[in-house]
Specification:
- The protein is mainly α.
- It has one domain.
- The chain is about 70% helix and about 10% strand.
- The protein has a two-stranded parallel ribbon.
- Helix 1 runs antiparallel to helix 2, helix 1 runs parallel beside helix 5 and helix 2 crosses helix 4.
- InterPro entries: Teicoplanin_resist-assoc, VanZ-like.
- It comes from Peptoanaerobacter stomatis.
- It holds the Pfam family VanZ.
- Keywords: Membrane, Transmembrane, Transmembrane helix.
């Protein structure tokens, strides 16, 4: 039970960081947010072209950004079915895109929903694999790695903040 409380704290920290990245675009001031209201409902329709090649880095980053969410959801909602976990991940991604559209702070894109949800699915599957592999201590190991990542992220944010003062 203690491990799940630690996981919950780590997930709250993670969600705050995710909101800062997705909604606030790493800005420290709301005035600096872009005024964009755009919607793309065609999946993988508009990849950025760099040096004549499609740049899929945004898709990859979206997948990577949601892997921890899948891990946390699986740990904290272990009694829920996989389908319910996936619906929660999808709904979270959809809400992020909806907020961006409503407040005109970014382009809402179905590709983002697909890639975010895919990352969450990878996180759930990885979490299931770790649960089978490590048995009793798997949540402890996830929490240790998550704590290290949270410390690194916090240090990077402090450096970013100090560099912009």
């Amino acid at each position: 039970m203690k491990s799940k409380k630690i996981t919950l704290i780590l997930m709250i920290f993670y969600l705050i960081a995710l909101i800062w990245v997705i909604i606030f675009k790493l800005e420290f001031s709301i005035k600096e947010l872009p005024q964009i209201r755009n919607i793309n409902l065609i999946p993988f329709n508009q990849p950025a072209i760099v040096n004549g090649k499609a740049d899929i880095s945004e898709i990859v980053l979206n997948v990577l950004a949601f892997i921890p969410y899948g891990l946390f959801i699986h740990i904290l909602m272990d009694e829920k079915s996989i389908l319910k976990k996936l619906l929660i991940i999808f709904a979270t991604s959809f809400i992020f895109e909806l907020i961006q559209y409503i407040f005109a702070i970014g382009a809402s894109d179905i590709t983002d929903i697909i890639s975010n949800t895919s990352g969450g699915i990878i996180g759930v599957v990885f979490s299931m694999f770790m649960e089978k592999l490590l048995r009793e201590n798997w949540i402890k190991y996830i929490n240790i790695v998550s704590t290290i990542c949270a410390i690194i992220l916090t240090a990077m944010c402090v450096i970013l903040l100090l560099a912009n003062i």
